[in-house]
Amino acid sequence: MNSLEIFTGAGGLAKGLESAGFHHSAFVEFNAHACASLKVNFDSTKVYCGDIREYDLDQLSSIDVVAGGPPCQPFSLGGKGKAHDDARDMFPYAIRAIEQLSPKAFIFENVKGLLRASFSDYFEYILLRLTYPTFKIVDVDDWRDHLKMLRKIYAMGYAGIKYKVQYRLLNAADYGVPQTRERVVIVGIRSDLNAEWQFPNATHSEDRLLWDQHVTGKYWRNHALNANLRNIDLEEQTTRVQRLKTKYGMFEPDTLPWQTVRDAIGNIPDPQTKHGISDHIFKSGARSYPGHTGSYIDWPAKTVKAGGHGVPGGENMIRYEDNTIRYFTVYEAKLIQTFPADFHITGAWGEAMRQIGNAVPVKLAAVLGDHLAKTLGSSSATTFYRKIKA
Hints:
Blueprint (H helix, E strand, L loop, with lengths): L1 E5 L5 H8 L3 E7 L2 H10 L5 E3 L15 E4 L22 H11 L3 E7 L8 H12 L11 H8 L2 H4 L6 E9 L10 E9 L13 E2 H10 L2 H5 L11 H15 L7 E2 L3 H5 L29 E2 L20 E3 L5 E3 L2 H7 L12 H10 L3 H16 L13
Parallel strand pairs: 1-2, 1-4, 2-3, 4-5, 8-9, 10-11
Antiparallel strand pairs: 5-7, 6-7, 11-12
């Protein structure tokens, strides 16, 4: 199946969909550094580096899936929170791609802040526009007026293309990513297909990690760690063991454990040694202070972030069992985001970390992509939609 990647960034979502069997027809990305990364890791002839508002969608045909991450700054908890009043809000152009290409499905990712109460009306508007992408009202420019009409669409009648749209807040750690990263995922399936989307069940859990660490000790044995290196509060451990045994009895949780920083990068050489890994370069200057304590090595990493004024220090540092800290290298951050080891991120440390922090974890994208491919693969259309010209 063919896909169009919009707001592609460095290509985390694209790489995951590729591993699930999707073939990319084009990549649309504005940032020059991210474009450089895309050209190194994918077919460079398919990369459009420029404004999506200037991209000619009419040159594409037979697009089965549109995927991407519309810029999240308008909804980020760390941003200004202006949503629809922010010029960086690109959701209208994601909707335009759906309207013109009529794909079988779409998948979009965005920050948790999209679900804030203050954005509820606009989020409803996004969902309704995605559900009825060809619905237009002449001489109505304000989205609020458009929303009022969309809420009455059944009374008005609608004969255009329609999508069955679902969304869910997912934690990447629940799908085997060594990072606690919550993001909103929106999936739409064209309504003429006899296919129903269901978000895949979580495969990993915090409880199982705690069970392996505090009840059986399996985690520590797997990493050949002595008890005195575990940095565990014994009173806290006793409380956790009791809680888990009360909840599960003698039967362990039936999921896999959350993956930790140690699971992901514990076998990588120290960046200050000779190792031959080009993007595993030590960066000095890490320091800890309240709110910036780093990611504990025996827990999933905190959300790798991309700050507007440089990468925040706390989230992008590793904290060892003796409480020493240092910055993640680009190579380590890349693996924590589950990019392949040979995936090349262009730019210096700060720019590379920005791209990594903006990306969808590849493993999560692959899980979603595989589930979407199976959903679409078993479907057939009851009607035929032609591409709608703008």
